[in-house]
Design brief:
The chain is mainly alpha-helical. It folds into two domains: 1-203, no CATH class; 223-390, no CATH class. Helices cover 83% and strands 0% of the residues. The protein has 15 helices and no strands. It has helices spanning 2-28, 36-40, 44-64, 69-91, 93-99, 104-133, 137-161, 165-187, 197-203, 205-225, 230-262, 268-297, 301-331, 334-351, 359-381. α12 (268-297) packs antiparallel against α13 and α13 runs parallel beside α15 (359-381). It starts with a helix and ends in a 9-residue tail after the last helix. 46% of the residues are buried.
């Protein structure tokens, strides 16, 4: 449970800080800047897809393939891939903002800033991933906290000093970049270049294709939902605000399972016991956030209940299927696990085009039910023993 909380803490800080930052920028500089969070929301799945291969996959490869060079090589390739993809978005930010049906003049400067910060977050994730596999969770906590504090404080302090967006952005980026350079120099050990990319993809293929699918789902799903008017835009934004951080933290369940399975120290019963405790904490925190924030948003109750209700039910079910999926992928068949996950993601993609303001919520529910059934079927049919710890 302690490891779940420590890894979850890193995600909590990384997830909450940007939301709070954009919220305060909306008060200090321009009320519209709170919408930057929604503008760049789909791009978070780009960096997690890159991390799944060159972070998680590379670290698992270092253990299973006995190739220590894969960690440094993964960081180099991951950073390069992120630079190309996110750099392309930053260069073409006008087209991206226009596609998301938002005003270019209002969001251009901070839109570019947000994309660059996504790149810095990718570098942070790649570094923290290495520390997790080395069980240096306290050190990872420290780096995560410092990164987000520097990013947050430089942004807000400059916003208090000046309202010129370019000055705010430049100072914040300089401060963050200096920290990232120092952190990586102390975390990543330079080795020879050598990596089996196919194995890196295989070891975390489920996550890779899942993140690519999530990018498509939210890019087009939110665009579809927003066509139904302001009431649903606000309800969806509110639902995302009070559950997004919780979903991010729940990734710790998969991360701990991956580490223990890779090291042959996994206990399904123990892992599920701790995972359920974490999930209940997350659900309760979402409910508390609803109670606190509702007076400020005054969202439509029915629409919000449907959206948040589905989110919380699926969050409760998450440990049951993600743990089995991770085990099947790493110990039985990466191909079957990936195919199963991709079928679930394909169902979500189809649902994102349903002519309904709840299309993304419907997709989430359908995906969760399918994964529960399919994973239990694979485990039962093949009589897989998920208790590795003696």
């Amino acid at each position: 449970m302690n490891r779940l909380l420590r890894i979850g803490f890193d995600t909590l800080v990384t997830s909450v800080t940007p939301i709070l930052g954009w919220f305060l920028l909306g008060i200090l500089v321009d009320k519209n800047l709170i919408n930057i969070f929604s503008l760049i929301y789909p791009t978070q799945f780009i960096i997690t897809a890159i991390q799944s291969v060159f972070g998680t996959g590379a670290n698992i490869s270092a253990i299973k393939d006995k190739n220590k060079n894969s960690i440094f090589s993964g960081v180099v390739l991951g950073a390069g891939t992120g630079l190309i993809i996110l750099g392309s978005i930053a260069i073409n930010i006008d087209k991206y903002i226009s596609f998301m049906n938002m005003d270019i003049d209002t969001y251009k400067i901070f839109g570019v800033y947000a994309v660059i910060q996504m790149f810095f977050q990718l570098l942070l994730k790649l570094s923290l991933c290495k520390l997790y596999f080395e069980k240096e969770n306290k050190r990872a906590n420290k780096y995560s906290l410092l990164f987000n504090l520097i990013n947050f404080l430089s942004l807000i302090v400059m916003s208090i000093i000046t309202k010129e967006q370019m000055k705010i952005v430049m100072v914040s980026l300089i401060c963050t970049s200096i920290f990232v350079i120092i952190m990586m120099s102390r975390t990543i050990e330079k080795t020879k270049f050598g990596i089996n990319i196919i194995n890196c993809i295989k070891y975390d293929s489920v996550d890779l294709f899942a993140e690519i699918s999530m990018f498509i789902i939210y890019l087009f799903g939110l665009k579809n939902s927003f066509d139904f008017g302001e009431k649903y835009i606000l309800a969806i934004s509110f639902g995302t605000l009070i559950t997004d951080t919780q979903w991010d933290i729940s990734d710790a369940i998969k991360t701990v399972a991956q580490i223990d399975i890779a090291k042959k120290e996994f206990s399904y019963k123990e892992h599920m016991k701790n995972s359920r405790k974490l999930v209940w904490l997350l659900i309760i925190s979402s409910i508390i956030m609803w109670i606190i924030l509702y007076p400020f948003y005054k969202v439509d109750i029915i629409a919000t209940l449907i959206i948040v209700g589905i989110e919380l039910i699926c969050m409760y079910l998450y440990p049951f299927y993600i743990t089995k999926l991770t085990f099947v992928q790493m110990e039985y068949s990466a191909m079957k696990a990936t195919i199963s996950k991709q079928i679930a993601n394909t169902l979500r993609i189809f649902c994102s085009f349903i002519a309904s303001p709840f299309c993304t919520s419907i997709g989430l529910a359908v995906s969760a039910i399918y994964q529960l059934v399919s994973m239990q079927y694979i485990i039962s049919k093949n009589k897989l023993n998920m208790e590795m710890k003696l």
